[in-house]
């Protein structure tokens, strides 16, 4: 019994020692300055996401942005190799620095190492929306990893030049469809609430106002709000307004038609 116990303890100690020996080199490898280029550059493309033309153009745009605004954007793409903490000293990352990391090993391609000063002009929800819009698997599959990186930086460039953004500019089609559905649903609720309580009676405005918090949230907060804050185009706004009106009219007329049916008809 004692021999068995001693063997188990010995096996456990050997396992712990093996884990420790494996963990020490990996921790040391996390800081790998050998992967850094000798010539200073604002883009380190270890995963070869960008073409030479794209990289040269983007490097020029980042230099112009830093010169015009003072904000520093740096781009790192990686896969199985990463410079780790050495990148911070190489680029001298500070409060006005933003590191865009593209790594396809995770569920989302993009990650952002945000300097403290950026939170003065961007809310924290901005970075979540930026990551989920351009770094999700569907966007990457349809547009490629290079476009995901370039499009996210283009959005950042525009926001930094105008002093910050509360939301990511641009309205994706799937998001606009959601706003349109919310607008139509809000119209349906408003139409049902406004129908006359007696046959041939006037429109029940008081009931429509009573239900205004419900259809108002659907139409204004979820229907028009995301569109107005992300684009200045009138077409999606007018479509959502028309959708609300059509939903309200359809619900109102449907109820009126049911009220006017003879009693013997179903």
Structure class: alpha/beta
- Helix and strand succession? HEHEHEEHHHHHHH
Whole-number mean pLDDT: 83
- Biggest sheet strand order reads 1-2-3-4
Q: Tell me, what's the shape? A: elongated
CATH topology of the largest domain: Diaminopimelate Epimerase, Chain A, domain 1
What's the domain count? Answer: 2
The percent range for helix content is: 55-70%
At the first level of CATH, the class of the largest domain is Alpha Beta
**Biggest β-sheet, characterized?**
4 strands, mixed
Our Rg estimate from Cα atoms comes to: 29 Å
Strand tally:
4
Runs with pLDDT <50, length 5+?
Answer: 1-29
Quick summary:
The protein is built from 10 helices and 4 strands; from the N terminus they run αβαβαββααααααα. The chain is an alpha/beta fold and 266 residues long.
Report on the structure:
- The longest helix is centred in the N-terminal third of the chain and has 28 residues, at 2-29.
- The protein has a 4-stranded mixed β-sheet with strand order 1-2-3-4.
- The relative contact order is 0.08.
- The chain is elongated and about 85 Å long.
- The chain contains 10 helices and 4 strands.
- The chain folds into 2 domains: 33-161, Diaminopimelate Epimerase, Chain A, domain 1, CATH 3.10.310.50; 173-260.
- Strand 1 (43-45), helix 2 (52-69) and strand 2 form a beta-alpha-beta unit.
- With 266 residues, it is of the alpha/beta class.
- Residues 1-29 have low confidence and may be disordered.
- It has helices at 2-29, 52-69, 86-91, 124-134, 137-143, 145-161, 173-193, 205-210, 212-230, 234-260, and strands at 43-45, 72-78, 97-103, 110-114.
């Amino acid at each position: 019994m004692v021999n068995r116990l001693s063997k188990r303890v010995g096996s456990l100690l050997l396992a712990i020692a093996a884990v420790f020996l494996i963990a020490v080199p990996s921790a040391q490898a996390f800081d790998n300055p050998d992967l850094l280029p000798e010539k200073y550059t604002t883009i380190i493309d270890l995963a070869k996401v960008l073409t030479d033309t794209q990289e040269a153009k983007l490097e020029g745009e980042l230099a112009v942005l830093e010169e015009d605004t003072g904000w520093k954007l740096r781009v790192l793409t990686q896969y199985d190799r990463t410079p780790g903490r050495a990148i911070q000293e190489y680029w001298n990352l500070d409060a006005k620095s933003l590191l865009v990391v593209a790594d396809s090993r995770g569920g989302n391609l993009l990650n952002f190492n945000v300097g403290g000063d950026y939170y003065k002009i961007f809310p924290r929800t901005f970075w979540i929306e930026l990551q989920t819009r351009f770094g999700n698997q569907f966007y990457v599959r349809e547009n490629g990893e290079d476009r995901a990186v370039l499009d996210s930086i283009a959005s950042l460039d525009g926001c930094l030049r105008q002093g910050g953004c509360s939301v990511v500019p641009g309205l994706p089609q799937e998001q606009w469809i959601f706003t349109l559905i919310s607008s139509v649903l809000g119209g349906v609720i408003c139409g049902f609430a406004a129908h006359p309580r007696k046959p041939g009676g006037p429109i029940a405005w008081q009931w429509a106002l009573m239900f205004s918090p419900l259809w108002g949230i659907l139409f204004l907060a979820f229907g028009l709000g995301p569109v107005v804050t992300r684009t200045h185009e009138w077409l999606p706004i007018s479509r959502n307004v028309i959708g609300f009106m059509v939903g309200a009219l359809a619900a109102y007329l449907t109820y009126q038609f049911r009220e006017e049916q003879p009693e013997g008809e179903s």
